[in-house]
Amino acid sequence: MARLLVTIGSIFLTLLGVSVVIFVILRLVPGDPISMMLPPGATDEVRANLERLYGLDKSIPAQYVIWLRNVAWLDFGMSTQFRLPVMEIILDRLPATLELVLLASLIALVLAFAFSILAVWLQVDSATLAIDGLAGLAQAIPDFLWALIFILAVTLFAPMMPISGRFDPRTAQDFTTNFYLLEALVTFRLDAFAELMRHAVLPALALGLPLAAGITRVLKGALEEAMAQDYVMLAQTKGKSRLAIVLGEALRNAMIPTIALTSVQLTFLIGGTVLIERQFSWPGIGSTAISAVINRDLPLIQGIVLVFALIFILINLASNELYRAADPRLRTAR
Amino acid sequence: MKKLLGLLAGTALAANVAFADDSTLTIAYNVSLPSWDATVGVSAVNPTIQSIYKSVYDQYIDQNPDLTFRPGLLTEWGWNEDRSKVFMEVREGASWHNGDPVTPADVVWSLERAGKEETGNPIQFLWSTLGNFTVDGNRIEADVLRFDPTIFKWMAFLTAYVLPKDYYTEVGAEGFEKAPIGSGPYMVDEYVANSFVRLKRYDEYWGGAPEFETVIFKFLPDASARVAEVETGASDITLEIPYEEYDRLAAKDGLNGVTTPVSDIGMIFINDVGVMEDANVRKAAAHAINKDLIVDRLLRGYGVPIDTLQAPEYAAFTAETTVAYDPEKSRELLAASGYSTDNPVKFKIQTTRGFKPKDYEMIQAVTGMWKRVGIEAEIEVYEIAKHFDLRARDALAPAAFYNWGNSIGDPSTSTGFSMFGPSPHSTWDTEDVDAMIGPLWGEGDEDARIAGYQEVDAYIAENAMVIPLLQFVQPIIYRDGLSVTPHVANFLLPQNVSSN
Lengths: 334, 500
Prior knowledge:
Largest sheet of chain A: none
Shape of chain A: globular
Largest interface: A-B, 71 and 81 residues
Distance between the termini of chain A: 15 Å
Oligomer: heterodimer
Strand content of chain A: under 5%
Structural class of chain A: mainly alpha
Shape of chain B: globular
Number of helices of chain A: 14
Order of helices and strands of chain A: HHHHHHHHHHHHHH
Helix content of chain B: 25-40%
Distance between the termini of chain B: 44 Å
């Protein structure tokens, strides 16, 4: 119970710190929303009126106190750009980002586990070299560049693959939630699921490939290390096959560094959605963040940063718990 | 799994069939539409999204593709003799997308709402120059509270959209954002922010139903994605792509291209600070730039060199005012102020990078040309938001690149606002120019007003108080079977696209 309370307290303190930093930084960097909307011929009075209208005429501490008071009631203010409540915008677009991140993570994990296990199982120099080379390539190319490569590849080789949006804009959608992929899956609407996957696969691949490479390197190294341990030799003497030893003995121990790395990389992956969503016109929170920054939509930027911070914190907490579950020493440690 | 793979193949086939659908026009568009209220907030003054607004809403007054004005929801307009009143005749037979008729009450409500400070219309200062509206049949009259000779031109410009009074009042601002209706040729069918908007033809449109039953604007800020969309046939038409790609795609089978000079001017703001207070330095900087070379080499010929802030399509354009490319003269001017290539005059020049085609490269070329005559300019790259902020605070560097749009082509909205000291958009701030522009704000004689601005432009050019570089050209790529009428105001309007 005490640990739970400490955790909740630290979450609030971290979010409070993040909110102060982002609030102050946004107001100190050049470029304010009023300047963005001043038309030709606007007078100083027009500027003053707009500042008053958007609450920017008060001091920064006063603005912060008002904002924080409203946030306590889950009112993040109105987006100056979308002219809708910030909370509504975030709730509307977060599912698209979460689905994309989930799919990218799945792709990354499947590829990483498959290649790592294959390399350690086969023990063939050429295969190991090829996997190391592929992992190196995948990691060396950043996600946004993968996106460009995929867009180019579609132009040349697969013109039928969609490169924009979450679904074909020619078709009407009748989902009740914004988790389209999950909803299509649980309601067994396989045709809709297939259509959604066609749109999601390229952005998810672009996001997931660098992550897959990172996990592969760590997991493969950890598996190789585990395979040199005494318990592996003992298992070999019992006549277990190499694949069975890799899966049954070494993998569990190799998971510990992998979980640590994956949780760190996952936060980068969420950050990566900002560019990938824009490149693929994916209507998530990442592309919304970019347009909010470009248009100096201060309430929306603040809301999105807080949500991102909360997600990062939750990922770290989840990875700690996974770490504890995977490592018995941590479970028993006091 | 087998079934899923089959479905994946099936949807690909279905998409293929959809590509050939002639009743749908898919536009790979370069910006995303954030808000549906075309009269309030940042979007309202963003020129790049006006094409979408103009597809859904009607303006008081419309514009032809060559920038000339034509009736919109108003069929007649003007002032009385002493210019103390305006009159507007509202079109009969126009209706909102919910079937209600467009009435003079809608027009009055839209104008009054725009003129109220609390609405947040960024052009409120202009709309509030009219008041005390009266309606008689379809005729509206209003008092001129402050005379502005450009009020009717503004009725075809930013925020000049007529919104439905009853519907808006009923659903409120948030309700309108979620379910907007207008009186334009297309109705909003589905909108996914940062992804696309699907429009449906409004069959009751007063100007006749447009050709395409469905129009989709896909929001693709990434130029490579727009190129891929049109190249793969996923979109029918796109714009704002690199000129290299335009040349490549236009030469490709199945695709066509059209370019038109648009109402966007690439210019270098001069701030009257430091070395820029020396007329010799400014003039030397202006004469040292070979604009033809920039257009030919950097922009592959897609640009129109200009010497004033008036493009050829603007009301106050005159070919008589020119600034010659004369590097020798630049050297002489700099020598007169004690500068040379060995002892160059130094200042900072700010520019965006990627905001307009080859903006950074252009400024690199300019600084290269300057270096040859004795000007050493340090380039600072900034975001457009920072430019707006610095400009509003009159804190730009001595030289700063910017793109100035002016889709109504009036000199007050180019030279006037960019060079008149008290304007927050002006960087140049001297009494001589202010004294010339000042009286033109209220000049009722249109010919005299235009002539006045031409004089101002000549004076500014002679003294190099701003360095206009070129008029940008909009490249549009579209598939075979379409015919596209480009718009000088830089609109890509689906109602201006038709099947061959």
